[in-house]
Design brief:
Helix content: 25-40%
CATH class of the largest domain: Alpha Beta
Number of helices: 9
Number of domains: 2
Largest sheet: 13 strands, mixed
CATH architecture of the largest domain: 3-Layer(aba) Sandwich
Distance between the termini: 40 Å
Radius of gyration: 21 Å
CATH superfamily of the largest domain: Gcn5-related N-acetyltransferase (GNAT)
Shape: globular
Order of helices and strands: HEHHEEEHEHEEHEHEEEHEHE
Length: 348
């Protein structure tokens, strides 16, 4: 008996009578066209074969978990999660990121999203996943926070400023050098190792992961930069992209960054260098510059010294620790421990 069937045979997961005509199954390649049709009905123009393969097949952390519900050969609901690996207190934890949750409009109101979500989490837990996290929208925050019993769901803090003037010349930072790279190489390893330490919850930003996330994306054009010190050692990287919102505002995003610093003064100096570079790059091309981070030190510095405003809005951020990991993963309960940038959310 398959793992899914074992779960469905348990009392709490047995199909209600109202679902008796529905087939619940693990997604296979044969379901792709029917699943794509559901995407088109729910999120018109969003999904393509290349994007699906990038998100779900080529992920360096492994294959996706997608469970679907079919009715008369038609896919009527789906719950997709991407595998992720986080470093938490110097230890690796396998988890899942909740990605695409969909129900056909003709089948809404039956409780399919809640039922399918709980089955998906139970399946992931049985596969050794420690927790689920994600970025719910206004529409899905109730599903995650109440129906699926996530431990925490909070609004995301956007750091945003208007680009109305250029910053100081980079000559004030002549002890550093910024290098644009077409592909992340092995030099990133030393920088990354510095973040495998206690008190930090961070996705496993290996060379393979960074190249997949930014250079192999089939749609979005990202630019990756290294920051090097006078000894030519990489002390930071950052990733930029341009975006146009629904109000037709062009926004520059600092999608991701990681800084190796000996002390807080060095950390702030390097972050200011990144801010100056991004500001000057996007000035006249974009109206705003934006980024995410939960770091309290950078919060204060960006707001008081660099002119950013903090706006709390969707998407939300949240997580649910699976029961057998509650004790080991208490660190997740404080947001100051999470190293979350825009890059953690697949839509950026």
């Amino acid at each position: 008996m398959s793992l899914l069937n074992k779960i469905l045979n348990r009392g709490e997961f047995k199909k209600p009578l109202k679902f008796k005509e529905f087939e619940i199954k693990i997604y296979t390649k044969k379901d792709f066209n029917h699943l794509l049709a559901l995407y088109e009905r729910v999120f018109p123009g969003y999904m393509s074969k290349s994007l699906w393969n990038w998100k779900n097949i080529n992920n360096p952390f492994g294959n996706h978990i997608t469970i679907i519900i079919k009715h008369k050969k038609k896919v009527i609901a789906s719950h997709s999660c991407a595998p992720q690996v986080f470093l938490i207190n110097e230890k690796k934890y396998n988890c899942i990121q909740s990605m695409d949750v969909m129900t056909d409009k003709d089948y809404r109101g039956l409780g399919l999203s809640t039922y399918l979500g709980n089955i998906t989490y139970e399946y992931a837990k049985a596969k050794g996943k420690a927790f689920v996290y994600g970025f719910p929208s206004d529409i899905s925050k109730y599903l995650c926070g109440v129906k699926l019993k996530w431990d925490k769901v909070i609004k995301t803090s956007y750091f945003i400023k208007e680009l109305n003037q250029k910053q100081n010349s980079l000559k004030h930072y002549n002890t550093f050098k910024i290098e644009k790279v077409e592909k992340v190489d092995g030099r990133i390893n030393e920088l990354w190792k510095s973040y495998n330490k206690k008190g930090i919850i961070i996705i496993n930003k290996t060379r393979k992961y960074l190249n997949w996330r930014f250079k192999e994306h089939p749609i979005i054009n990202y630019e990756i930069f290294y920051v090097k010190n006078k000894n030519n050692k990489i002390i930071a990287y950052f990733v930029l992209k341009r975006y146009k919102d629904k109000q037709d505002n062009k926004i520059g995003h600092i999608v991701d960054f990681l800084i190796k610093a000996d002390n807080n003064i060095s950390k702030l100096k390097i972050f200011k260098l990144i801010d100056v570079f991004a500001t000057n790059k996007f000035y006249r091309k974009c109206k705003f510059l934006s980024f995410w981070i939960h770091d309290s030190l950078l919060h204060k510095y960006a707001k008081k010294q660099l002119g950013y405003k903090i706006i709390k809005k969707e998407p939300y951020f949240g997580y649910r620790i699976f029961n057998n990991n509650k004790q080991n993963l208490k660190l997740l309960n404080s947001m100051k421990n999470w190293y979350i940038t825009m890059s953690n959310n697949d839509v950026f």
